[in-house]
Amino acid sequence: MQLQPEFESMSRPELQKLQFQRLQKLLENVYEKVPFYRQSFDKHGVKPSDLKSLQDLQKFPFTYKQDLRDNYPFNLALADKKDFVRIHASSGTTGKPTVMVYTQNDLQIWSDVMGRSLTGAGITSNDIVQVAFGYGLFTGGLGAHCGGERINAAVIPASGGNSKRQITLLKDLGVNAICCTPSYILSLLDTAKELNIDIHKDLKLRTGVFGAEPWGEEMRQKIEQGFNIKAIDIYGLSEIIGPGVACECREAQHGMHVNEDHFLIETINPETGEVLQPGEQGEIVFTTISKTGMPLIRYRTRDITRLITEPCACGRTFHRMQKVIGRSDDMLIIRGVNVFPTQIESVLMQNKEVAPHYMIFVSTDEHSGMDKLEVQIELNEEMFSDITKNLQHLESNYTKDIKDIIGISCKVRLVEKNSLQRFEGKAQRVIDTRKKK
Ligand code: DLL
Q1: What's the CA-to-centroid distance between 235 and ligand 1, angstroms?
Q2: Is the distance from the beta carbon of residue 24 to the nearest atom of ligand 1 less than 6 Å?
Q3: What span, in angstroms and rounded, lies between the C-alpha atoms of 239 and 223?
Q4: 87, 116, 303, 325: which to mutate for ligand 1, most atoms within 8 A of CB?
Q5: Which one of 57-71, 89-103, 372-386, 396-410 scores highest in mean pLDDT?
C-alpha cells in the first residue's frame, strides 16, 4: 500500500524532471540567501547556472557536520526566523550540538514521508501505534508521532523507557504496531518474558518499525520470531529531516525506499569524494530538494551502504538503500584492520544460545601495547540452565566465528543473563578505552 502513489510510483523520467526543477530552484535560493553556500560555491568555482542536468550536482561542494557546527545555531537557515515552527537538535558527543529548523512546509514533508513509511510498513488508520522512540530534541518520537497521525492511525506517545508500562500499554490497549530502536524492542522482549506475557495470546502486535541505529538481518530474525511481527527498517537523520528519509516496504523488506522526490541520494567514495555507481558500497550523501527551513546540499552522512536500483515488487519506483552497515566514524580500526560492530553482531545473532545482548570492549594491552578486543555475550536462560553444555567450548567457537568474519582474534567472555546494559534509545555497544595514538 502507498500513501502517495502519485509520487511513490512516478516514472523515473517524470521523477528526474521534478528533481531537476526542485534542485535548480534550491541552488539559486541558497546561493542568493545563505552566505555560507555563496562562499562555498564561489570557492569551488561553481554557480547555480552550471547545473544543466542532475549529473551536474557532482560539481557542487559537499556540506559537513562541522559546517553546521561552525554556523551554529541558525546561520545555515534559508528561511526567516519568523517562519521557523520547530527546532530539533542532535547532542553530538563533542562540541556544540547541531540545530535543525523546520518551517510549516518542512513539517508537512516530514509527516508525508513518515506517513508513507508507516503505510509501506503495512500500518493503516485501523491500527493503534505505540511510539516508544524518545520524544524531545531527538527526532524519533515526534517524527513517528506525526506520521501516525498523518495516516489517521491512533498514536500512543509512550516515549522511551518505563518498560513495564510499555508492555502494559501494548497488552491492555491491543496495540498493533510499535516504533522504537531495535535495541529497545529487544529489551522489551525481556520485560515481556519477565511479566509472563504470552506473545501470541496477550498481544495484537503485527508490525514493528525500527531504526536510528544499525541492525542486521540476524537481529531482525530474533525480533520477528520473539514478537511474532514483521520488523521494518526505517532510516533517517535529523539534519535531513529525521526518520522517514527512507523505509522498507512490507512486501519486500529488502532495502529502504528513499523518498527521492524530497531527498536526492548519492553514494561516494568517502576518501576521494568520487561518486560511485549504484550497487557499489560507499558513503551516503543527501541533498534536500524541497525543504525551506535549513536545506542541505550534498550533506555527508558518514553512513556506509549501497544503492539498489532494480525495480521492487511493491511497485514503488524510488531507489532503495541497503541496510546501513555502520557509520564510517563508528568503524573500529583494530590492529590495523577495519571492523564494523555490525559484523560482530551478525556472528553472534546466528547462534540460538545467545541472547541478543552484547558489548564490545577495545583497549590497549598493558604489556604489548597492542589493541585488545573483548566481546561480552549474554547467554539466554535455556543455555545457562543447561549445565551439561561446555561453556568453554562455546567461547572458543565464538572466538573462531568472529575471527573468520573480521580477520582478527578477540577474547570472548560469556556472561550471565541480565548482566549487560540495556538501552532505551540508541545502543552504545562499543567501549573504546585505547589511548589515542
Ligand atoms: O536517528 C533519526 C531516526 C529516528 C531514524 C528514528 C530512524 C528512526 P539522528 O539522531 O540524527 O537521527 O541519527 C542519525 O542514525 O546518520 C545513522 O548513522 C543512524 N541511523 C538512523 N537510522 C538508521 C537505520 C535519527 N535504520 C544517524 N539503520 C544516521 C542504521 C541508522 N543506522
Answers
A1: 5
A2: no
A3: 29
A4: 303
A5: 57-71
